[in-house]
């Protein structure tokens, strides 16, 4: 049995990854360490609570005693590190927790990994003992004619979020160079799909469009992101764990670059089609341009040549198919949505980010 410690497994990508890995690999046990911040939700994994190969611990990655105990108790072979503060807008209004979790938390986790694999000598032959999940945002913003991000693009983060992720990437790489800890990193573009917390563009748009609320589009809505269906990301991580080379970074992306406004319009059209009997149709009438995000990166694009060539990975789910699947998933999980949408902290966040736009910056 291979034992994987997943951090942040109650979040969006982490929960999809745990379900994906347990379904595909009978010989894997998952230990999920998650602090259950506002973004962590045990409901995301309610369907596998009875699974013998799955164990959950509530705790902070900065709690070195707890991490040390888990590594030893479960004979952990590999850490897959998702835990992070992840929302750019929250990082602009309050960077501190991003420094605590993304930088210090990653440092503490790396130190415990170093103790376990190098000082205590656990399984010296392992290919990857620490896989770090990172983001394309560490590379900053592309101009209209710039080449897509590759593994050789210099780092130029724009927000406290991306700066904290950049710092964590540097630490992970340093532990390979300095101590020989067998690490791998993936820098992935925007994920979407089931269980994404409704503060991010796609789930927020779905929810608001269903309720007939305004659909906030930052600036001119022409910023470009590269969208990847979350299951494709999980498959890429699995491949890197199985066949990746220690010390290497892999760019992961969806091979598409629509402007934000197109994404919002597509969601409106899908909902108009699936729920035509509503007084809000056409839902594009709900679109509202609002003050832009400070330091907003204009364009991301991903060059996935390396992971395609070396590991044979490429996205399998098109943006059209993935968006339709995602909208349907939210429509079929309105209880999950309501449990979040009715929370005072969630309502408080919406008020802080949208009602005050432009006044508190
Ligand atoms: P998320 O915000 O949905 O979930 C983060 C999880 O981490 C939550 O369950 C939270 O409780 C947990 N967590 C936060 N601080 C913690 C701490 N100190 N100790 C333990 N657990 C803690 O995030 P996500 O969108 O699933 O992103 C997961 C990872 O993937 C992050 O590292 C993010 O930077 C990276 N990433 C995300 C995207 C994306 O589009 N969502 C794209 C590329 C990379
Ligand atoms: O690129 C990968 C990153 O994608 C991850 O590292 C982050 O963790 C993840 O949150 C995501 O960051 P973004 O800032 O790109 O995601 P978000 O959904 O917040 O915004 C997507 C785009 O939509 C961005 O250009 C800002 C815009 N936007 C967002 C919101 C919430 C709007 O126009 N209106 C909104 O209300």
Protein described:
- The chain contains twelve helices and eleven strands.
- The chain has two domains: 3-189 and 227-256 and 299-317, 3-Layer(aba) Sandwich (Rossmann fold), CATH 3.40.50.720; 198-224 and 258-291 and 318-351, UDP-galactose 4-epimerase, domain 1 (Alpha-Beta Complex).
- It is an alpha/beta fold and 361 residues long.
- Helix content is 43%, strand content 14%.
- Helix 5 links the parallel strand 5 and strand 6.
- It is globular.
- Helix 6 (201-211) crosses helix 8.
- The strands form three sheets. Strands 3-2-1-4-5-6-10 form a seven-stranded parallel β-sheet, with helices on both faces. It has a two-stranded parallel sheet with strand order 7-9. It has a two-stranded parallel ribbon with strand order 8-11.
- The structure holds nicotinamide-adenine-dinucleotide and 2'deoxy-thymidine-5'-diphospho-alpha-D-glucose (DAU).
- Global structural class: alpha/beta
Q: At the fourth CATH level, what is the homologous superfamily of the largest domain? A: NAD(P)-binding Rossmann-like Domain
What Rg is obtained from the alpha carbons, in whole angstroms? Answer: 20 Å
CATH architecture of the largest domain: 3-Layer(aba) Sandwich
**What's the CATH topology label of the largest domain?**
Rossmann fold
Query: What is the mean pLDDT?
Result: 96
Provide the domain count. Answer: 2
* CA-CA gap between termini: 51 Å
Question: What fraction strand?
Answer: 5-15%
- Provide the spatial order of strands within the biggest beta sheet: 3-2-1-4-5-6-10
In CATH, what is the class of the largest domain?
Alpha Beta
How is the quaternary structure best described? single chain
Number of beta-strand segments: 11
- How many DSSP helices? 12
Biggest sheet layout: 7 strands, parallel
Which ranges are low-confidence, i.e. pLDDT below 50, for 5 or more consecutive residues?
none
Bound ligand species: nicotinamide-adenine-dinucleotide, 2'deoxy-thymidine-5'-diphospho-alpha-D-glucose
Give the helix level as a range of percent. Answer: 40-55%
Shape annotation: globular
| SSE topology string | EHEEHEHHEHEEHEEHEHEHHHH
